[in-house]
């Protein structure tokens, strides 16, 4: 029962570099999400996906790119990392439905941009 | 637009005290879901509860209880007889009832239980 896994868990990168955070889920959930956690802001939605090849912006999408070629994977790419993107990133997934399904979170990826 | 406010940034109590974490939300939807998550020092997010907007019954789970009041748009969380292991950051969140169920989080309340 692997669930939802994120990699890398910890990353230090330099300003301007491209960074990709990976997210993999084993449940075949339709929906996947990327959130970032910053002090004083709680978690904020970056991007989400309703299915393979369907993605949409969340509250704070600038500077990020996502793709979803396979249902189980939802990578998040910082094309040119900035210090303001230093944060904890959480991937989440949720099955399709209208009954208020539980949303499952990965363990988080700590990213530091220096 | 949806919004969740957790006005208490930090709370510190002595073990065995009862503590209530406040959550106030704003939404124009008639149907929605409310959540509480716990984030212990290890960093992961632990799901605690999901509440449908149509169900205003209070819920109790062991030492945890939740008071949902639609009239005041509040969904407060009480820990009875707190323990050191309850020390964590607690997040209240709101989502639409269908579709992607995107979560809108409050800022979080850091709870410290002192022995």
How does this model look, in words?
The complex is a heterodimer of chains A (114) and B (115). Chain A is an all-beta fold and 114 residues long. Chain A contains no helices and 11 strands. Chain A has strands at residues 4-7, 10-13, 19-25, 31-38, 42-51, 54-57, 64-66, 76-78, 87-94, 104-105, 109-113. In chain A, strands 2, 4, 5, 6, 9, 10 and 11 form a 7-stranded mixed sheet that branches. In chain A, strands 1-3-8-7 form a 4-stranded antiparallel sheet, with no helix packed on it. The radius of gyration of chain A is 13 Å and the shape is globular. The mean pLDDT of chain A is 93. With 115 residues, chain B is mainly beta. Chain B is 0% helix and 54% strand. Chain B is built from no helices and 12 strands. Chain B has strands at residues 3-5, 10-14, 19-21, 24-26, 32-39, 46-52, 59-61, 64-69, 74-79, 88-96, 103-105, 109-114. In chain B, strands 2, 5, 6, 10, 11 and 12 form a 6-stranded mixed sheet that branches. In chain B, a hairpin with a 6-residue loop joins strand 10 (88-96) and strand 11. Chain B starts with a strand and ends with a strand. The mean pLDDT of chain B is 93. At the A-B interface, strand 4, strand 5, strand 9 and strand 10 of A face strand 5, strand 6, strand 10 and strand 11 of B.
Structural class of chain B: mainly beta
- The strand count of chain A comes to 11
Global geometry of chain A:
globular
Number of H- or I-type helical stretches of chain B: 0
Uncertain segments of chain B of ≥5 residues (pLDDT<50)?
none
Radius of gyration of chain A: 13 Å
Poorly predicted runs of chain A: none
User: What is the ordering of alpha helices and beta strands of chain B?
Assistant: EEEEEEEEEEEE
Q: What percent of residues of chain A adopt helix (DSSP H or I)?
A: under 10%
């Amino acid at each position: 029962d692997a669930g939802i896994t994120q990699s890398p868990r910890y990353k230090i990168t330099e300003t301007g570099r491209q960074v990709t955070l990976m997210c993999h889920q084993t449940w075949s959930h339709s929906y996947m999400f990327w959130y970032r956690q910053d002090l004083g802001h709680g978690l904020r939605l970056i991007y989400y996906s309703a299915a393979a090849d369907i993605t949409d912006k969340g509250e704070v999408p600038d500077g990020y790119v996502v793709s979803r070629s396979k249902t189980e994977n939802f990578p998040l790419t910082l094309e040119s990392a900035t210090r303001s993107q230093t944060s904890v990133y959480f991937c989440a997934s949720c099955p399709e439905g209208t009954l208020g399904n539980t949303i499952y979170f990965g363990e988080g990826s700590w990213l530091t941009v220096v | 637009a949806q919004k969740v406010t957790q006005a208490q940034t930090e709370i510190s109590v002595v073990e065995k005290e009862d503590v209530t974490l406040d959550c106030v939300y704003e939404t124009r939807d008639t149907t929605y879901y409310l959540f509480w998550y716990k984030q212990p020092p290890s960093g992961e997010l632990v799901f605690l509860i999901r509440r449908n907007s149509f169900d205003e019954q209070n819920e109790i789970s062991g030492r945890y209880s939740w008071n949902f009041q639609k009239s005041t748009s509040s969904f407060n969380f009480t820990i009875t007889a707190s323990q050191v292991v309850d020390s964590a950051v607690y997040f209240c969140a709101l989502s639409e009832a269908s579709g992607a169920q995107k979560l809108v989080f409050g800022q979080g309340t850091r709870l410290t239980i002192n022995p």
